[in-house]
Specification:
Two copies of one chain form a homodimer. Chain A is of the alpha+beta class. Chain A has four domains: 3-96, Uridine Diphospho-n-acetylenolpyruvylglucosamine Reductase, domain 2, CATH 3.30.43.10; 98-217, Uridine Diphospho-n-acetylenolpyruvylglucosamine Reductase, domain 3; 221-327, 2-Layer Sandwich (Alpha-Beta Plaits); 334-433, 2-Layer Sandwich (Alpha-Beta Plaits), CATH 3.30.70.2740. The first copy, chain A, is 37% helix and 20% strand. Chain A starts with a helix and ends in a 12-residue tail after the last helix.
Chain lengths: 459, 459
């Protein structure tokens, strides 16, 4: 055997001793752990492990380190930038077995969970407390994976992202050491913020095994409205005016006409195929009507059609479900295609121009593309439908993708608002952060001196 | 000359060439930069420099590195844990000359400032925009210093701390390199969160030279109320009930009877000398009265006296000014004394018990001591008045301080909510963070390989 093969064989022998059948080299299981929901090429891991505890994760990392085998943390595989693709082979560590909700402290509005707990499982568990965990990236992702990718989603404008809603982490470093990064206190000035350093580190610094999370009170009242107009600019101007009025909103989303068409095909909603704003107002029963009245009056000031209110909770949830599933829906616009989906985030005042220039740019390439955005954060997604066997189409889409990021950076924005760097934006990170990237690389060495954790990502 | 003296002389020669009279070794200027407002022993810097630009800061750091001379960043000296005390000598870098407000983007609700700009200067500058910067540690600190110590204060419960309100930083590393840690985008998933890593690093990783800050809309309406009761527990129960009701509050502060007595002496307010809750409600003119009515009814449910409302803006500001100046006020309770002031932060449900146990503990030592707290975060301050020439008193106070931190850690809290580690809590940090401290030390090496930045702090 060659050196790498011999090392892998020794590592696998150790892993089997540790985990027995919870270490598998079966082809289909490996394929299930080879790619996320993004557009990047798969990377087949050599084996998949299913630990049940943090000490088991630490033992796996220690073994892999001894044998110089890559370790890739796997949550649910719902990422977008290839973070879990095992591009250099190695061991995929599936954390779904770390599935315990350890405690819910309703009085403190916090909870402790293992990293494999999914967000919907947690919210179901919380149902009777009047509390919920608000970060919602669409997919029913694991909370550890959401922390690792600094996930956000539509609720971020009101409740913040994973950055804001994690009080502390337990994590296994690339040395096999287990550390805890904080306490249950809501704020702290004790030393460097290791919690925030691990959030968004995409499995390259440590494997997250436990999280202490902030919970929020469910709003007493919610109202959802939809406004459409042929003119995207006036919709966005209206959205910004709503924000600046300090209205209590939980979500403020935009879909362009292509995204609406996709959702209509997918869910048969029969929406007008025009740029559309979705707004969710949240507040107390006593005050929400004031805010809704204000929003209605403001729409008139902007010469927009009267907002359409979701009449029932079912209507409301159908509307949001459509928004959430737009990624799946749009493939119906070109059956058999794959979506090159990306995201950028710009200062809010620039989002209208950034979307308009992006639409104009997309019109010059012959690909179906849709835009949806979290307006409240200046964050939007572009999805281009490509034939993944057609290198010309891929090149066209990738070039448009580069131009999009240049555009966002030139407007004072970032190359990714919520998807992360992963495999897809490594060159853009350098353009955005300059010498900061070298600092990041050096920090990586501190946590993972042998560079075994998720190699080939971010840098 | 001995080696250290020779190195210092060479460094000073270089600094004078660079800065001319903006590098001073005058005794009185050095003494003004030798200690903050906390209780720690002073540390006299060998010189004080007054750069005006980030490149000048970089040149100072580069010179100091070449000659192995410590560099201590100085904002306004309003810290509490000796962060700016030059305990190993070296060059105090006074950043007050970096005083430009570079841009205010009202539409994006952000601004860019140099690190020496003070928070009140910024808020005065913003007066006509309807926006403000909410983080308020009491003192009129510099924004760079506030970021370096992860400052917060009463507004943190609604608006967050410096952690939450800084979008990006420019900073000079211990190598002299200048980096930028982010963009103006409100969120990002691009690489490791260097912004949050520098926030709270107390001048040990880098010297912050510019900040991009989030701004907030000034609330349309504010109401301030005061409730007092002989029984601290029922006041805190009421406070927690207000929080759990999701009422729009900006501040929720408690003062014990000793703190109220101090404030009465200082400002002649004539408040009842009992534990006192101060609440500031913030919201829209249309909705705030609903919330105030709710708060009044709730006080009745808790058998509390009717809250007393500040009738005029002047009353309101006098009340908050008293709260802010409690630190100065309490020295009137024992003229000539110095205050050993500290802070801890615990899960909110524990704060009543933690304060009660702390009061009981303080009763066993023969020192005047007061407690004030930011209830909304579970954060409170204890101030013990000592004769700084009396080693017995110092020992008693330090032992009570240790017991306080043990108590907070045992309740799932942190050794400091907002003051930082500095000189005062280095041993406690190890108890709180365990192996995480070694990771922090290794990160320090990345940013500051020759360990010249603020040596003797945190570790």
């Amino acid at each position: 055997m060659r050196g790498p093969d011999r090392r892998l064989a020794a590592c696998l022998a150790g892993l089997r001793e540790l985990l027995d059948t919870r270490c598998s080299t079966g082809q289909s299981l490996r394929e299930l752990h080879a790619r996320d929901e993004g557009w990047h090429l798969p990377g087949l891991p050599d084996a998949v492990c299913f630990p049940k505890t943090a000490p088991e994760v630490a033992s796996i990392v220690t073994l892999c380190r001894r044998h110089a085998v890559p370790v890739i943390a796997f949550g649910t595989g719902s990422g977008m930038e290839g973070q879990i693709n095992a591009v250099q082979g190695g061991i995929s560590v599936d954390l779904s077995g770390l599935d315990q909700i350890l405690e819910v402290n309703a009085g403190d509005m916090d909870c402790r969970v293992e990293a494999g707990v999914r967000r919907m499982t947690l919210n179901t568990h919380l149902r009777d407390t009047g509390l919920f965990f608000p970060v919602d990236p669409g997919a029913d992702a694991s909370l550890g994976g959401m922390a690792a990718t600094r996930a956000s989603g539509p609720n971020a404008m009101r409740y913040g992202t994973m950055r804001d809603n994690v009080l502390a982490l337990e994590a296994v470093l690339g040395t096999g050491e287990i550390i805890t990064t904080g306490t249950r206190a809501r704020k702290s000035s004790a030393g460097y913020d290791l919690t925030r350093l691990l959030i968004g580190s995409e499995g390259t610094l440590a494997i997250i095994t436990k999280l202490c999370l902030r919970l929020h009170a469910l709003p007493e009242a919610l109202r959802t409205a939809r406004v459409h107009a042929s003119d995207l600019q006036s919709l966005l101007d209206y959205a910004i005016a709503l924000m600046q009025a300090g209205i209590g909103m939980a979500k403020l989303e935009v879909m362009d006409e292509v995204a609406v068409r996709a959702v209509n095909l997918y869910a048969g909603l029969g929406l007008e195929e025009e740029p559309t704003l979705l707004v969710e107002f949240a507040g107390s029963a006593a005050t929400i009507d004031h805010e809704v009245d204000f929003a209605l009056a403001l729409a008139e000031d902007f010469d927009l059609p009267k907002p359409v209110w979701a009449a029932s909770p079912e209507d409301r949830s159908r509307l949001w479900k459509a928004r959430h599933e737009v990624a799946h829906a749009e493939t119906l616009l070109r059956p058999g295609s794959r979506s090159l989906v990306t995201d950028v985030c710009v200062p809010i005042s620039r989002i209208a121009r950034c979307i308009a220039e992006t639409r104009a740019d997309l019109a010059t390439i012959d690909l179906i593309a849709s835009i949806v955005g979290h307006i409240g954060d200046g964050n939007f997604h572009v999805s281009m439908l490509i034939d993944s066997g057609d290198s010309r189409e891929i090149a066209l889409a990738e070039a448009a993708h580069d131009r999009l990021i240049d555009r966002a950076l030139a407007m004072g924005g970032t190359s990714t608002g919520e998807h992360g760097i992963g495999l897809g934006k490594m060159t853009h990170l350098r353009r955005e952060m300059g010498g900061g990237v070298d600092v990041m690389r050096a920090i990586k060495q501190v946590f993972d001196p042998d560079l075994i954790l998720n190699p080939g990502k971010i840098f």
